[in-house]
Amino acid sequence: MADNKPAYTVRVAEAGGTTRFFAAFEDGNGTRQEIEIDEAVYLTLDACRLIEKGQENERGRHWERLELSEAQLAARTFQPPTPMEEAVAQSVDMQSALTTLTDTQRRRFLLYHEYGLNHDQIATVESCKRQAVTQSIAAAAEKIKLFFEGALPKGGLSEE
Predict the structure, then answer these.
(1) From CA 136, how far away is CA 142, in angstroms rounded?
(2) Start-end ranges of CATH 1.10.10.10 in the chain?
């Protein structure tokens, strides 16, 4: 979008009850030229001008998206990014919450939430029934919820 200057312009002139159509452009020497054209050529050039304007606007929208800063992108999203200090605090809190789980609960909870394994895959890896995995993950989620609500003491281990 370096040059927003159109290659040509078109205009209509009314004189003495007669409508005349003109196209203007710069020739190779940089001299402005204007010629009279018929209505069909005028309508074609005017339609092309509108198409070019639409394409220019579309390019502008794409460039705008490319040039947005992180802050501008965040402002346009529904959930702005978490500030670094808050993210670290949340991570530390989550680490503390994980200490309230048994080894089995912690392992299964992390396999499910952090590594994306489903209950059947975890059951296969741990050579146990799917129901046991489901119960462990549910119990772990409940303990973590209670930890963040303040109903569970920090740093205390409890059994499944």
Answers:
(1) 10
(2) 84-149
Q: Cα–Cα distances in Å, from 94 out to 34, 87, 101, 155?
A: 73, 10, 11, 11
Q: Residue 16 CB: number of other CB atoms within 10 A?
A: 4
Domain 84-149 part of CATH 1.10.10.10: yes
User: Looking at this protein, which amino acid is placed at residue 153?
Assistant: P
Query: Which two structure tokens, joined as six digits, stand for 1?
Result: 């979008």
pLDDT digits (tens, 9 = 90+) for 96-150: 888 999 999 999 999 998 888 999 999 999 999 999 999 999 999 999 888 888 8
- Own/partner pairs for 24-30, CB < 8 Å, 24+ apart? none
pTM strictly above 0.85: no
Which whole-number Å values give the CA distances from 23 to 5, 51, 118, in the listed order? 15, 17, 68
